[in-house]
Amino acid sequence: MSSERDGKKLVRSPSGLRMVPESGMLSSPFCFDEPQWVPDKECPRCMQCDTKFDFITRKHHCRRCGKCFCDKCCSKKVPLPRMCFVDPVRQCAECALISQKETEFYDKQLKVLLNGATFFVTSETSEKSETMVCRLSNNHRCLFLDGNSHYEIEFARISSVQILTEGFTPGEKDIHTYTSLLESQYITEGGNTRATGMLLQYKVPGSDDLKQMKFTTSEDLNSNKKLSATWLVAMHKAAKLLYESRDQ
Ligand SMILES: [Zn+2]
Ligand SMILES: [Zn+2]
């Protein structure tokens, strides 16, 4: 696969410059398109504070939700990496808050995922565990697993991510599923809960069969258990981000 060296191009949208992959087919699963702007004639008043627009009170569109606001309600310029904007763009208060959290994901967790970490990986079909380095591909579309064997798992094919934890009484709460991530507690790097593994379910290319892989943090001398736990926390946030953007 040549996907590791995808070209990017700069495109100009009404909201600013965006750096996007040459081929739309290769866009990151974490990214989404710009919203349709609410047409000017459909919003005589600020959609937040209800101030009437006139020659002095001008309207501005939030680049994230596309709604219409007065300057006061839409004054913040915040990075919006999920729409590939090069510079911070104007957003309403609600969107600015979400974007700020996502920027944190881009600055921290995404880098952890790209750097990779070491795990014992057990595939459903084989009893043997293999020590593998797992990392996110540069275009964010796949997980690469490298050991004696090599696997590429496309994010689009992942149906569930369960983070296994230790540190409190075993029970339902030990498993954070992709489908119930919204209700799940956050696994923090500090605190009592520690991520110790991950169950990944994905669709095998060319079929509807689900395959499961289990990742556990390795006690191997050559690996860094703390780094692996940090990688799992980052993966949890990534899954949560992808889960939430399914509704958008
Ligand atoms: Zn307003
Ligand atoms: Zn907004």
TrEMBL record:
Residues 40-95 form the FYVE-type domain. Gene3D superfamilies: Zinc finger FYVE domain-containing protein 21, C-terminal, Zinc/RING finger domain, C3HC4 (zinc finger). GO terms for molecular function: zinc ion binding. The keyword Zinc applies. It comes from the Eukaryota. Keywords: Metal-binding, Zinc, Zinc-finger. The keyword Metal-binding applies. It holds the Pfam family ZFYVE21_C. InterPro entries: FYVE-type_Zinc_Finger, ZFYVE21_C, ZFYVE21_C_sf, Znf_FYVE, Znf_FYVE-rel, Znf_FYVE_PHD, Znf_RING/FYVE/PHD. This is Zinc finger FYVE domain-containing protein 21 isoform X1. It comes from Microcaecilia unicolor. The lineage of its organism: Eukaryota, Metazoa, Chordata, Craniata, Vertebrata.
